[in-house]
Specification:
The chain is mainly alpha-helical. Helix content is 63%, strand content 0%. It has three helices and no strands. Helix 1 (15-29) runs antiparallel to helix 3.
Length: 63
């Protein structure tokens, strides 16, 4: 998965919200002391993609 595009790109205005959404998903999903890559391997990319795309729609609605 590393180095591969997993979906459409985000505009510069969307990036802060997308990062926040992905990090919140990580914090909510991780097990005690688990790093990001281990969480990603355990749960797969779908929760992170959903969080990122959810942030995208919030920016579009605000425009």
């Amino acid at each position: 998965m590393a180095g591969k595009a997993v979906g459409p790109s985000f505009s510069a205005a969307e990036v802060p919200g997308v990062i926040e959404a992905v990090l919140t998903t990580y914090r909510d999903t991780r097990e005690n002391g688990e790093n990001f890559i281990d969480t990603l391997r355990r749960v797969g990319p779908d929760p992170f993609k959903a969080a990122a795309n959810g942030a995208r729609f919030k920016v579009e609605e605000a425009a």
